[in-house]
Amino acid sequence: MREIVISTESGSDLPANLIEKYDFKVIPMHVIMDMKNYDDGTFPVEKVYEYYDRTGQVPTTSAVNDYEYYKFWNKLKDQHPGCVIMHFTYSSKASSTHQSAVLAAKEMPDVYVIDTLNVSGGCTAHMVASWHHIQKRKEEGGIQNFGKLAEELQELAKRAVCHFIPGTLEYLRAGGRVSNAQYIGATLLRLKPLIEMVDGSLIATKKFRGSMAGIVDQFMKEFIEKYKPQKDCLYLMYSKGLAEDVLKRMAENAVSYGFKSYEYVMTGCVISCHGGKGAMGLAAMMEE
């Protein structure tokens, strides 16, 4: 049977241990600071925060372009002769990276593009579930129709859920995503917006009041009650700057809710350009 290679962009924020475990291949998105283009993942996320502290501006980000995809997939095909590539993109409604991947795939045989309809930990959850789905298909007698397999993996995207709460609205304000009035009001009232992935779009749906330590239990309880996710794994998302006691509490809650395992997913430089320091989030796969 032909080898199936799974690839994605750095915006999926795959933890290093999962990249190694599942042999995922990652192409970097880009971060632009001081008119220099940096590959996401090649520098520490603290550099994003340092740039904001120094300039008062958030770095700009850019998607992978079609030529970069073409080179990336050709390299994978050289390394894995005869392989089929299943590429999982950052949500098509949140970045142009999906459209670039689709354009590049038209020029290459045996490359299938799947829209995760997610970002960060949501992408991670979808990809891990897809890896297990592929193994199941192999055990059931092999895979002959790769186009049908890609359709099945795309269907899985509907079961991936992802919520997060920014630790600060400073970066959203600096990037023009919230107004000064909204920022001042939320800061004075200690309000934090809940951002949900809804059909591939980032939507602010409600507000929590208080510190991250004070709202973590309610946040997790509401997420789990609403989606009743599979108990295989809960993905605990965070950005640098989230307090250690909150990270520990997230793990304790995952265990108390009966999850067999949990994985910390730290947001990389691209996501941190928008969400800033100290964010927390959750991602999982819903039951069928």
Explain this structure to me?
Helix content is 42%, strand content 24%. With 288 residues, it is an alpha/beta fold. It has 2 domains: 4-32 and 61-157, Rossmann fold (3-Layer(aba) Sandwich), CATH 3.40.50.10170; 160-285, Hypothetical Protein Tm841, Chain: A,domain 3, CATH 3.30.1180. The strands form 3 sheets. Strands 10-9-8-13-11-12 form a 6-stranded mixed β-sheet, with helices on both faces. The protein has a 4-stranded parallel β-sheet with strand order 2-1-6-7, sandwiched between helices. A hairpin with a 2-residue loop joins strand 3 and strand 4 (36-39). The longest helix has 20 residues, at 120-139. The radius of gyration is 19 Å and the shape is globular.
Alpha-carbon distance between the two ends: 28 Å
Q: Any idea what the shape is?
A: globular
Number of strand segments = 13
In the CATH hierarchy, the architecture of the largest domain is: 3-Layer(aba) Sandwich
Strand arrangement, major sheet? 10-9-8-13-11-12
Overall mean pLDDT stands at 89
| Uncertain regions spanning at least 5 consecutive residues | 171-189
The SS-based structural class is alpha/beta
Alpha-carbon Rg, integer: 19 Å
| Main beta sheet strand tally, sense and closure | 6 strands, mixed
Question: Count of helices?
Answer: 11
Helix content: 40-55%
Order of helices and strands: EHEEEHEHEHEHHEHHEEHEHEHE
